[in-house]
Each structure stands twice: as structure tokens, then as C-alpha cells.
Amino acid sequence: MDRRSLEQLLLVGGSTTPVADASMTTCGCLVSELAFLQHLPPGECPLCHSPQSKILAAVEPLRELWRILDLENDRRRRSSSRQSAIALDGDAVDMMGLFQRYANEENQSSFREDIFDDPISKSSMISSNQPVSDESLQRSRITMDNLYEQHILNELTEEKEYNYSLCFPLHRKRSDFDISKRALTLNNVLKKGQRYISSSICTRHHHGTNVEVTMFAMITEKRWELYEYTVPINVLNSSHARPQLICSGKATGEFGESEKELQDGAHLTGEIVIHSDFPSQQSAKQTDIQKRLQQWEFVSCELTPNHLVISGTKGLVRVFNISKSPVYKIGQPVYTYVTNFPIKCIAVASSRNLIATGVTAKERLSNKEQPFIILHKLTFGADLRLKSVDPITITIPYHEPIRHICFNEAATHLMCTTSWELRYLIIRLRQSSVDNYRKPRLIFTGFTCSKGNSSSAEADLIKTSEGITDIRFGVPYSNTVFINFNALKQIPPMMIHLEGAMIDSLVDDDGFSSQHSMTSMEESDYITAGTVMMKFPESGSLVHRCAVSPRGDGVVFLSKDGRLILVNTTNFHLASTMSSKKKFAVLLGEVAGSERRDEAGSVEFSKDGGKVFVVDRKGVFSIFDFTKGVPGKDHDVIKCKIVRSNGSVVN
Fold first, then answer.
1. Which residues contact 26 (CB under 8 A, 6 or more apart)?
2. Do 376 and 389 meet the contact criterion of CB atoms below 8 Å apart?
3. β-strand 527-535 against 333-338: which pairing, if any?
């Protein structure tokens, strides 16, 4: 049998390329394990669309066949790369570039061979009643890291990857698009000098059309706008691409694809409305909701590939459809949540259709503030219509408001921070699919400063300091979190390693995960400690936002004055505090700053880690691209200024 025939055996699950992780599902379909985990809605087979399907077992003969073919591909690739590199002229590539390219190929090959010899990688499922050692868990984590990195690298062409190796982090191409000027020319309601109060960015790769789709939303007190920026993945020159307005709307419910063609969504059916405090009469409840919708103002927004979530005053949260759906129009409201308590913050997990809202109530007897997290689980039917929303209440055991919320990549855990003290909490939302998010559990509470310094921390907050301004989970399977501060006490951003239970898992279905074999034991359910793994004084102590590269080799900080500081390091994946702490920081660029964190711009990495997207409060959309060209050859690729450890810039 020739090679082409062997590769045909690996085209499972409708894939056009050989699949490395062939698996059998409980419905009898042969699929890619990674494709099954990324398919929406969760639990549905991507082939036969059978609901409540699960990964049954790995197909070892097909996985072993892929390993054999992949190793042969590596040998051919290294041979052809050496020949093509020799043919390049001296101006196009230097010795450092060649050395880095060869080193990456050799490291990836040897790393892959070590993993395939590992007995853990021969089976992606471990029995839940089988004990697992720390060494086995670490090797399993390395295996998952490798699969995640391979998925990212598959999105880059060889030319883009070569450009990235030469540019990152010191050289980049910058592109700016001023959305506010376009809005004014279209007689938008925005007045001159008015600024957006919140924004959000969502980027993804559309594999069907082979394009990168980046959407960003911006809101004022009474209006929201949604833009889309689309470029081909395999094309370097995308200078013709421009952000396009695809929808806009008002707080009262009108929406449309153009500012001049807004329609009222009140007559449309299909919206689910939930009132957390039901009045005695249904008519009174409906009248109260309509009154609030006419008077409320926007406060913050979050964006997913399918929905725009906006929170505001009057205790309102509203979800708008932004995808091309056979049952909903773009911009149509699909869900409204109403409560009598103020909503402090929101977060979304697009992979599981989850929305988290931080709510602060008051106890009747003590009159103390009591924070809650309301977890909204959205359930969609086969026709993509929203069938139901199940709000789940999580009580926080501290008498202070919740400041920020965020989900991890797998939506199995949630992190939140409090307003008055520099405290962060880790909540496990689910351990297996049977939990159905009904058994959330607080597994760790940590302070970003020692308890002995709590009085000084409180004094610092009194001096108009915002305290913790942003939180992010690190790259999957690293058990790390990033915390930013806007503090007069000179507290730099930090990366904290969570010791104990593993946050992310490759599979989370009824004991089929390597995580569940450990967390089934009570003593392994919790985070035991949070250790500061790295601090970032290069960005200063007045930081509003951050974004972590999916490659795990960098993090971008957006400071109060609008500076974008990119810190490059190689150990975000490592789970040891004794790892090397070498860092390299550059000034990526500058955007519009803001006095308050709530008005700060948004920053995100692209899915392949090759770009940084930023939208500021003035409506300027910026792209910093590390894959566009070669330094010294392409004039658009500019060198960044180096930043010292004290935050000063080297000219």
C-alpha cells in the first residue's frame, strides 16, 4: 500500500487532512478527539449530530499510523528546508534566522518522539479509579500542551512562521483604522468629542472559508456598534482589508445593519426574559421590564462569536444575536435578565454558552453587602433557537462587591476578585458532565499581597486607586493566572502558579479525563497554594488590561496612559517557580489612554498568536502584526523600543 492510500485511512470525521487523534464515540462514529471537544453544542457528535455523545476510546492503530507518517514527514521537511534555505540569498535571511529555524525543527522533532514513546500518550483516557502519580500527570500535561501547540501552528503558513521567528517580539507592522471618523460621516448619533465607554474583541479562524475573522464591539451609554475585520489566513498582503460595520443598535431595542435602517425588535418573537424577583402579577412584571428597557444605560460589554452581551444600569443584562442564524436576525435580542440589584461585572465563555454576572445584594438584618455570581447556562436546540436559560446562583463568602470575573478556556473554572481587598477566588464550576454546573465549589482563596500588609493595601485603595483591574487565566494546562493592578503602591502585574488540582483537562466527560483520576480524591479537589511565579515591573503599576499569547511566549499589558508593553518570555507553560525568569520587554505602541479601567480599550491576541488587536476608547482599531514581513527587507516592519525593568524606554 502506497503512502497516499495510508493517508486516506486517516481522513476521518470529514477531515481533509490526516487526523492524529482518531477516536470512537459512543454513537459509533469515528472522529478526531480535538474536533469533538471543539464542536458546538458540547456533547453533540460532529458527524451524526447525536446528542449526549461521548468519546468512548482511542483508535490506537490509526494513531500509530499517523505517528509513523508524521515522523517521515518531519525527515522530508527538514531535508527540503535545508535545501531551500541554502538557495536563499544573504539579504533575505541571516545566520541567526537559519539557526533559530533549524533549532525549532530539531526540538519539535525530538520532543514529538519523546512524547510518542510515553505510555500515557498511547491512551487519552485514564480510569477514574486508577491512581495517578505526579510524574504521570506532568507527562500528560506535556502531551496536551503539544497537541494545543500543534493546533495553533497548523494555522500558520511556513512563510508566516518564518517571519514570526524573525520579528517577534522586537519587530512588527502596525495598521490603524479610525472607526469614529467613519461613524461621524454617516450621521451617527455620536457627537464630536464623545467617547466609547466599553469595548470587546473576539477573533477566530473560519476553517470552511480559510479566513481569519475578528469582530469588535463598542458601546456608548445608549448605543452599540459591531464591526468585522476579515482577512485570508494564507495571504500576507491584506492591506485592502478594512473593518466593516455589520450591525448597530440602541438601548431601547432597535437594531439594524445600517445606522439609517434601524428596526424595532419588540414585535419579534423568541426572546427569553427572566426576572429574578417576580412580582405578584404577571402584568406588573412586564410593565416593569418595559420601563427599565426604556430608561437603562449601557455599562460594559463582552463579545463571543455568536453573541454580544451588554450589562447596564437598572439591573439589566441583554444578549444579542450577531451570527447568521435561520431563526434570528443579526442584532436581535435573544435573552434579557432583570434583577433588582446592581450588576458589577460580566464574563462570557463562548465554548460552553455560559454568561457570568456579578451581583451585589444587602443582607436584611446586618445591612452588609452580600455578593453573588449568577451563572446563566444557555441551551440551544437543533434549529439553533435558544430553548432555555438556567440561572444558577453562587454565593461568595465575603462581604464585599465582586470586581472582575473570567472563565478558563475549558469553562470548568471561574476566577473572580473582590473590590476592597486584593483577593482572588477560584471556583470549580464542574468536574464532569453529570454535574451540569449544579455543584460549583470554592477551591481556593488567595491574596496578591501578604496578610501583614492588608492595612497598607486598604490605605492604598482609599487614595483613588482601582486595585485589581484585570484577571486572566494563562495558557491551557499551565495552571497559571495573570493579575493586573492600578495601584499607587507600585504593585506590578504578576503571574501566579496554582498548585494542586489541575485547572484544564483535555476531556471532561464522566471520568475519561486524566484530571478526574486525581480530583476524584477529596484531597486533590482543591488548589493548595498560589505562588507568584513572575512579576512584570516593565509595565509599571498603573495597568488596565492584559492579553496572553496562545503560544505561551508573551503577554501584552495596556497601561493607564495608553502604552502597550509586550513582555516576551519562554516559560508560561512551565509549572515550576524555579524556572528561568528571563524576560524581554518592548514598547509595542501607544493608543488612547483612560483615567478609569472601565473606559480602557480592549486588547487580544489572534488565535495563532501572530497578531495583537487593540481597540481604544476613541474608536481606533489597531493591528500589530509579527507575520507580515522580514525586518530590513519590508519597510512596513518597524522595530519596537526596548523597555527596561523599571519601565523606562530605551531610545
1. 53, 54, 55, 56
2. yes
3. unpaired
Q: Is 24 exposed, middle or buried (0-12, 13-18, 19+ CB in 10 A)?
A: middle
CA atoms within 13 A on the CB side of 167: 29
Q: What is the pLDDT of residue 195?
A: 81
Give residue-wise pLDDT tens across range 486-503. Answer: 987 788 999 999 998 888
What is the predicted pLDDT for the residue at 151? 52
354 bridge partner residues: 349, 377
Compute the distance between CA of residue 358 and CA of residue 374 in angstroms, rounded to an integer: 7
Q: Which CATH class is domain 3-71?
A: alpha beta
> Does position 169 have pLDDT exceeding 90, yes or no?
yes
Residues 147 and 506: their CA atoms lie apart, in Å, by 10
pLDDT band at 182 (very low <50, low <70, confident <90, very high): low
Amino acid at 501: A
Share the mean pLDDT of the chain. Answer: 80
Residue 382, number of CB atoms within 10 A of its CB: 10
How far does Cα 49 stand from its chain's mean position?
26
CA count, 13 A, side-chain hemisphere, 254: 10
Rounded to 5°, the CA angle 536-412-33 comes to: 105
DSSP at 190: P
Which DSSP string corresponds to 201-241? EEEEEETTTTEEEEEEEEE-SSEEEEEEEEEETT-S--TT-
Residue 345, amino acid: C
Greater confidence, 614 or 280?
614
Higher local confidence (pLDDT), 282 or 173: 173
Q: Given 3-state DSSP classes, what are the helix, strand and coil percentages for the chain, each rounded to the nearest 5?
A: 20, 35, 45
pLDDT band at 66 (very low <50, low <70, confident <90, very high): confident
What is the maximum alpha-carbon separation in the chain?
Answer: 80
Domain definitions of the chain by residue range: 3-71, 156-183+465-507+525-650
